[in-house]
Amino acid sequence: MSASIEKKTAEFEQPLIAGNPSFDSVTNSICNIIENKPPRLWYIAISVAGSFALMFFGLIAYLIWEGTGIWGLQVPVAWGWAIVNFVFWVGIGHAGTLISAILFLLRQRWRTSINRFAEAMTIMAVIVAGIFPAIHVGRVWALHWVFPLPNQMGLWPNFRSPLLWDFFAVGTYFSCSFMFWYVGLIPDLATLRDRAKSKIKKIIFGIFAVGWRGGNRQWRHYEVAYLLLAGISTPLVLSVHSVVSTDFAVSIVPGWHTTIFPPYFVAGAIFSGFAMVLTLAIIARKIYGLENFITVNHLEKMNKIMLVTSMIVGYAYSCEFFIAWYGGNEYEGFAFLNRAFGPYAWAYWIMITCNVVVPQLFWFKKLRRSIPVMFIASIFINIGMWFERFVIVVSSLAADFLPSSWDYFSPTIFDIGFLLGSFGLFFTLFLLFLRFLPMIAMSEVKGVLPQADPHHHDKTEHN
Amino acid sequence: MTKGKIVIAEFDGAAGLFKAAEKLRDSGYKKFDCHSPFPIHGMDDAMGIKRSKLGFIAGAFAVIGFVGAVLLQWWASSVEYPLVISGKPFFSYQAYLPVTFAVAVLLAALAAVVGMLAMNKLPRWNHPLFKSELFEKFGDNGFFVTIESTDPKFDDQQTSDFLKSIGAGAIDSVDGVS
Amino acid sequence: MNKENLQGKEYWRSLDQLADTPEFRKYLENEFPEGIGEDNSLSRRNFIALMGASMALGGLLGGCRRPVEKIIPYVTPPEEIIPGVANRYATTMPFGNSAYGLIVESHEGRPTKIEGNPDHPSTMGMSNVFLQASILGLYDPDRSKAVLHDGQEAEWSEFVEFWNGQYEKLSKNKGDGLAILSESFSSPTLARLAGQFKRKFPKAKWVAYEPVGDENIFEGVRIASGQALRPVYHYNKAKVVLSLDSDFLYDESENITSAKGYADGRRLKSEKDDMNRLYMVESGFSVTGGMADHRIRLRSRLIGSLTAALIRELDSSGLNAGGILPDINFIAAPELDRKWIKVVARDLINNKRRCLVVAGHDQPAGVHAMVYAINHALGNIGNTVEYYSMNDSLTSNRAEFASLTNDMNEGHVDTLVVLGGNPVYNAYSDLGFNSAMKKVENTIHLSSHVDETSKEANWHIPQAHYLESWGDVVSVHGIKSVVQPMIAPLYDGHSAYELANLIATGEEKGGYEIVVETWGGIINGDFERSWNRVLHDGLFIDKKSSAKKTGLNSGSVKNHLKKNISSYHAVLGEDIEISFAVSPAVYDGRFANNGWLQELPDPITKLAWDNAAQISHNTANKLDVNNEDLIEIEYRGKKIEAPVWVVPGHADNAITLTLGYGRNSCGRIGDGVGYNAYLLRNSDAPAFDTGVAINKTGRIYKLASSQDHSSMEGRPIVREATLEEYRDHPEFAPGMVEHPPLKNLWDDHSYEEGYQWGMTIDLNSCIGCNACTIACQSENNIPIVGKNEFSKGREMHWIRLDRYFTGDVENPEMVHQPIACQHCENAPCEQVCPVAATVHDKEGLNTMVYNRCVGTRYCSNNCPYKVRRFNYLNFTKDTPESMKMAQNPDVTVRSRGVMEKCTYCVQRISEAKIKSKADGRDIVDGEIVTACQQSCLTNAIVFGNINDPESEVSKIKSRNRNYELLKELNVRPRTSFLARVRNLNPELDDSKKETSN
Predict the structure, then answer these.
(1) How far does the CA of residue B96 sit from the closest CA of chain C (Å)?
(2) Subunit contact C833:A161, Cβ cutoff 8 A
């Protein structure tokens, strides 16, 4: 037993958590973030993000009042930035659960430093993503018809529609991720409850800690529940974006109707998700001085994953072209030539540069471990992945079967506003999380400290 | 809440707690618990308690979700209101898979979480242990054994002596049992 | 009956007055605040009026009608009117010197839809865009609603008073200084009134003016035949047709029968059939040019030379064209293609008496005279073309109009009555009509809108729409018919008849009386019975009307040509020619405020909401301009600015300006749309001229086009072949796509039972005239979205015409393809809708359930034909009240956020089903006619039950040219197309084009 753990820790050049802290130093350094006043930077950030979030809600109100005509949509391009943003944010929302679930099952214990954080990001991203399919429909007030609710007309939704699958898949994904995240939070909330000075904090944390007492008779159910959630979420991570990809793959639009979409989308989602985690983690660890918890090793591991997924995505891009040529379908063939050399070529090449070229930097250990490099790279990747969705959605629709209906999509000021607004909302939610909840899973971190092992006393330094 | 008390004894780190648990188990204590800031590996055996049954509950609900979803979709689109859509059969089960999967997973997850709380008799906003100053750092770096007076082997004096003998540090006790 | 009539009048008049009292109005306004909308177009008063009208109409059908023309409240509903069931009445639409017989569908007294009258020789049950759209003119909220005196609102009675004064004065001096400027007409009653007018005021003038018309044709025929005649063409009898700048399929008068005849002449049941051949010579690309088997581009001015050269060619090929040519070497012009002329001449000679040569109304009289001579020489007169005398007609006359303007300028005119028309806007700019009008003391203008001319006139009289007033017309075939009102005047307008009668006789009379007075002389025998017959049928068959025997007066032709030789013999070199074309949408500008027509994509350029300066690729390069570049066109010292639109196949060194735009006083729709080309138009060169300078302004003007991409990218979309190719490979059309067997992975739904609706569209007949688009818009309450939305690509037309160019960029061929919902059996749109808002019914219709639609637009994305239209905004929100009256109560008006599309006119299907059920029988083939099919000039569209092997649609689907678009997707469309066939002349076939894949 102990041997195995040593082997695991030995995989690292350094231990999982740098500076070999004690239990209470872990508790303090993480709880202090919440208990002390946040740094000025936080206030600046929240006010910027917050105002964009407010604009977002304002725009939504106007959209519902005026109609989807405020966007640049038309026929043939009846889906525009709204859907692009949806797919983009759902994609972002993948890293969290992947890290918490799959890495958990794979016993990748280095995940403990970043999983809380990543899960939070997942939830925020999915919240933002979920807004778009809801508001992009023509008659928002009738949206509940997509759910199988009994009604006097005896009408039921069409279970063959990928959009319907979407609502179920994304809904389930959000619920599971949320439960996963919350269950993970319970012990830490209990800790905060017991540290809380003010009554009000005691009450609030008390309520959400649901009376956790950290007894092993609770831990044993808790651990199974957590394991189950991990097990359940794992297929979800793969299924959600696969289902999202069927929105396109199931249709007959040239450039959409492709069987490689599910794996391709999942890889892309993980790719973009990690990029976003990285961006946020780098900022957070700088602001809050968490270099010991989120070490360069963690970041490097994420870079490796990004390198892999970027190559999967790159492979998918080329595979599409190969099939388009090999399949000999003139419509599909044209769709892809049009993508790379048609009116949307600029978007296509932005995508290739950001998603395929930039990540190649990570072949070099030096760059892989350089904070500035990976920060800039991660931002490029975020941009590139947005453009990937743009290219798929818009350029395919803009030129399908009958040239007579071809048209060029140009966004309006509102399209841009909605994109910026969605970022505003995302960062607002995330900053609030940083402010009020432990961004690192204390109990889990403690669990991976050397002295956490009952048969490890000889090595344990007492304090 | 019935009359009675809970004895709280602090131990030194995960290792200490682990050993204490084994000793308590061997000396036949039943109604005791070991509190730690994080789950300790192998503690179940150390305390002599069986693994959780939660898995079966979740599994059951997954099956219910699966069957329910299939039935709903079959009934709605081939019995209640059949519609010709893209010339496809009324019961196009292939297309029903994503929804079925989602519903099954959702129910399983809910079952796992709700089941976990239920088995832990949570949420519970108050508990005798919360009265103890000492106990407060269980979430930080405290490792405690708690023994309830309802335990047949419980005896005020002996129990605390025994705890000391197996290396307990500070000892505290609160009135009332869970 | 007169007594009856009088009683009637007495009684109703009193009620009418009641409706007029201010208190009554006030009370109504309180009761119906929304009735007085932004434009107060449907006040309760008008509502009573139209209810009354329906009563009146009730009388119009069948035996016992009482001439009720004044309005009554809807106290006792007339038995003819069953709420919810449409009534149909016959009437006639006057248009220039033409008359188009119509059947108007009317719901509870509101005319809602116009169809052709099957019995009328000029429509034969069909209708073009102008006829279809004219109904919107009736409900135009911007129509003038009151008499204006020097801009102030006045009462009709005041005007009558004023005129009585004038009448006294003018009677004394035999009408010296009095002039009537009317639109051209062919109408017994107006002719009678004109006669009375002349008798009463011998010194007065009555002149007709139309900015666009057949004046040159009439003049040419007069020169050649010595009589006032007008041609009637029988394209169906012609094996070979040569069109010299004549867009006879679209903007020439009588285009409906021309198109029908032309299409009949090339219908192919199988590869064994024969078809006619069309040669086209023109400057701009026209609808007819698109249908041509051989087309050459030539500046309009050179077409005279070509005609002359052709005559020479015919002469030298031993056909005596009458020696009408002055001896000049006409072939000199380097632009002329000698070989082409030779071949065409031979083809014509080989088809003596079975060919036809026509020239466009823009070509000068001499060309028409020559064309007459050619047809005469070829023995076509009496076979493919006949000439009817022009009775009861007054035609537009440039010379007289010019001299009238001159008189006005010199102050010889003190009273000018403008009966309709809008000369201030569309008169030749060199005449300076506007300033001349200012010199006239009393100017009276009758028009439906307070337009440019009304603003200059002392008196403006609101003109009643032809659907609101009595009148009569003579068709080209000399067939007389009556214009009868479908509804009482909405804005107390008065017809030209009423005004002319007042002017000529000084007494006030209702249109009905005036017309009946004339017809008393026309109908002999039992007036009551035959009059009712006329009203019921919509026309009066007059034995006297028959074609004239005519000869050729070569002398006068020769003289004319000598006199005007410069018009028929020009060497232009690189000079840029400017030519003025009538707008395919707003015609001469009279429809400028008609939203349907403004939003109708031009058949060639696909532009809407604007007119452009059309030029060829070469010329564009030469001038270094691109689409949407704003250029300044300078001609005879006058300048206008116009945006460029490059049209493949346009003649080089030529620029075509479209007339009818740039109005500034026609209403909310048309004001400020486009540029006004009339400003460059001169009376001595009304159609085309050289000597223009073109300067770039460096500015851009955004144009709205409904189709950005004109190439088929080599895809088998519109499938065509030459006649030989077709005969070699009869199955070429379906064979153009290779695909695996189209099998479903599941058991198909059975469509064996009951009716199964399907449609065929014959691309060999379709000329791309847009009539179907407007008919559909009218039938299905399709909203107008405006230029901004249109340019975004949000037009709502359920059936659109795709236009592709094939072959050489400089001189391409053009093909049209009407695309509406194909009603696929495996409709891709259905499976992707999350709420099952679009599903199939058991008769194979792809139904759209508006109430269920949440507007995900997924169906539109997944529609390979992109025929679905989405209400991105609330397009119907600000429909004026009066326009709502034009809407079809059988069709839902769609709200914001829902998808819509072609329904195969499901409301007509249901109507037929109900009827057949009531009669306890099955629906017979041809009983259901979709709106597009009904209007189609060439019967290209056929709809019916494909389950019945005997139905026409089934028979057509079994023809070998039949193919389904994008069949390889296994969507199984219910609409199929018949491939197009071009009948190329082997001798000219060197420029052999590839068929479209």
Answers:
(1) 12
(2) yes
- pLDDT bin (cut points 50, 70, 90) of residue B145 is very high
Q: In the structure, what pLDDT confidence band is assigned to residue C79 with cuts at 50, 70 and 90?
A: low
% of chain C with per-residue pLDDT over 70? 90
Torsions phi, psi for C901 (to 5 deg): -175, 175
Tell me which residues of chain C, numbers 778 to 837, contact chain B at a CB-CB cutoff of 8 Å: 825-828, 830-831, 836
> For residues C368 and C374, what is the distance between their CA atoms, to the nearest angstrom?
10
Q: C809-814: which pairs have CB atoms within 8 A and are 24 or more residues apart?
A: C809/C617, C809/C648, C810/C616, C810/C617, C810/C618, C810/C648, C810/C649, C811/C295, C811/C296, C811/C297, C811/C648, C811/C649, C812/C648, C812/C649, C813/C290, C813/C295, C813/C982, C813/C993, C814/C285, C814/C289, C814/C290, C814/C604, C814/C649, C814/C768
Structure tokens at C482: 């009556």
CA C847 from chain centre, in angstroms, equals 32
Strands (E), C522-612: 577-581, 607-608
At C755, which amino acid appears?
Y
Rounded Cα–Cα distance for residues C186 and C195 (Å)? 14
Structure tokens at C517: 């007075």
Selection from A343, A327, A448, A359 nearest residue A406 by Cα = A343
Is C839 within 8 Å of B87 when comparing Cβ atoms?
A: no
**For tokens 């759902």, what's the residue?**
A90
DSSP C644: E
The answer to whether the CB atoms of A138 and C871 lie below 8 A apart is: yes
For residue C689, how many C-alpha atoms fall within 13 Å in the half-sphere facing its CB? Answer: 15
The nearest alpha carbon in chain C to A153 belongs to C852
Residue numbers of B between 139 and 178 with CB closer than 8 Å to C: none
Q: How confident is the model at residue B137 (pLDDT cuts 50, 70, 90)?
A: confident
Residues of B in contact with A176 (CB under 8 A): 105-106, 109
Average confidence (pLDDT) over B108-112: 95
Interchain contact, A75 vs C819, CB within 8 Å: no
| Residue C338 buriedness (CB in 10 A; 0-12 / 13-18 / 19+) | exposed
| pTM of the predicted structure, to 2 decimals | 0.90
* B contacts of A246 (beta carbons < 8 Å): 98
- The verdict on a CB contact (< 8 Å) between B87 and C826 is yes
DSSP C865-879: T---EE-SS-TTTT-
Cβ <8 Å between B98 and A169:
yes
Joined together, the tokens standing for residue C380 give 């076509």
Q: Which range, of B149-158, C588-597, C845-854, averages the lowest pLDDT? A: B149-158
Using CA atoms, how far residue B157 sits from B24, B169, C9, C113, C132, in Å, is 15, 16, 122, 103, 106
